[in-house]
Amino acid sequence: MTMEFDNNQPIYLQIMNHMKRQIIVGKLKPGDKIDSVRELAAELQINPNTIQRTFQELEREGIVETRRGLGRYVTSEESTIMSIKKEMAGELLDRFVIGMRELGFESKDIITIVSEAVSEKDKKGSE
Amino acid sequence: MTMEFDNNQPIYLQIMNHMKRQIIVGKLKPGDKIDSVRELAAELQINPNTIQRTFQELEREGIVETRRGLGRYVTSEESTIMSIKKEMAGELLDRFVIGMRELGFESKDIITIVSEAVSEKDKKGSE
Amino acid sequence: MTMEFDNNQPIYLQIMNHMKRQIIVGKLKPGDKIDSVRELAAELQINPNTIQRTFQELEREGIVETRRGLGRYVTSEESTIMSIKKEMAGELLDRFVIGMRELGFESKDIITIVSEAVSEKDKKGSE
Amino acid sequence: MTMEFDNNQPIYLQIMNHMKRQIIVGKLKPGDKIDSVRELAAELQINPNTIQRTFQELEREGIVETRRGLGRYVTSEESTIMSIKKEMAGELLDRFVIGMRELGFESKDIITIVSEAVSEKDKKGSE
DNA sequence: GTGGTCTAGACCACT
DNA sequence: GTGGTCTAGACCACG
Description:
- Chain A has a two-stranded antiparallel ribbon with strand order 1-2.
- Helix content of chain A is 64%, strand content 6%.
- The first copy, chain A, contains 5 helices and 2 strands.
- Chain A folds into 2 domains: 11-76, Winged helix-like DNA-binding domain superfamily/Winged helix DNA-binding domain (Arc Repressor Mutant, subunit A), CATH 1.10.10.10; 79-126, no CATH class.
- In chain A, helix 1 (11-25) packs across helix 4 (78-102) and helix 2 crosses helix 3.
- By secondary structure, chain A is mainly alpha-helical.
- The first copy, chain A, is elongated.
- Chains in contact: A-B, A-D, B-C, C-D.
- The structure holds a DNA duplex (15 and 15 nucleotides).
- Chains A, B, C, D: GO terms for molecular function: DNA binding; DNA-binding transcription factor activity.
- Chains A, B, C, D: This is GntR family transcriptional regulator.
């Protein structure tokens, strides 16, 4: 795994979100074993303490489990994964819609803008 | 003016965005005089230095101008205001669309979700 | 007279330099009467206190004289005017040469750069 | 590092320019770690907040980068450094040439004056 | 009255 | 350890 980091957000949060997305999208499946702190730290060239913090938070959210002596695993609870997905999507949606309204855009404007944005992307992708 | 502050973002940024929105939406018009540092500080119960920081950044973005000894004014360049509006909307849009795609949503899903969200809000508003 | 003001320098200084230049270049001649504080203030849309300050400083430098009840006049001492010109040129020169050396430019570089700059201007002027 | 401060310019600007020059001249190389806020503050006997302000501005110009929790570094983008050098030299040049013309000097005068000034300095330097 | 700068000292998040 | 933010209070130049 390689990642580019944005200095405006804590690294542990960036890694955390990255892993959550991998799980949601299915690149990491329920029950999969996760790289150890040391491995990930070496791979990403990041301080192990930062990775530790990442896992701590993932565990707090119940998306990762530690099995003593065996390592860390993606939770087997698919419901947890689904609810995390909804939560992340909901946050994205809220921030976007609220933000647009604060800028004075109305419902129809917002839908138009999004429609154009995603269809444009589709075009580019198929070129 | 009154404001509620969110602890997760620097106060100066929150005030900054608040003022940018007021200007974009037209509550503050091009050329309008802006509350002085001391006035705003008193009004919001915030340290004047924090307000100073806010204005510093707004000035850097060209949305506010200082006239020596007289105070600060909203820029008269309407084009600047429009481009800031576009920039802010573009950021919101990008973060949303990219984020949703990273979660595995496809174009049609994204449009559906947004449509539902904004129409739901409209219903509530008209109740 | 009209002037554009730069917000990064005190207005009184800008007017002051402007008048010094007019005198040096000969647009205002030794012994000429100078606009009154009120006139200048109205013309430039500037606070009279600021104009007052301008004249105060010009007087301190001996380049302007007050004749009680008659108004203010450009000094008749041509030597004063010449020495002001040398002083201003010297300051410009020093700031430039010292600055360029601090940036690592050597003597021959500096001469080359200036030569190019002024000859380029000459070309433009004759177009 | 030691510095003498000039009361006519904000300290943070003086330090800023000083560091820009060090980087341009190569005393600080691309990628080098920069003294921490606290270190520099102690060294220069200046309040840490003032140093903070200095770095804030340097970062805005893209000549310095912050790596979270690790400290600040000179940008690795040599092109950024070069363009800053050109910008600073251009400003010096403009202010000088424009200023001299405003005083009535013509192209050949300007070149002569600069040539004399720099050659005189060379003589002194070799004494 | 206005903004700009500086100091002193504190707290926090991040690595 | 690092930088980022905030407060409190002071002084200055400018108009």
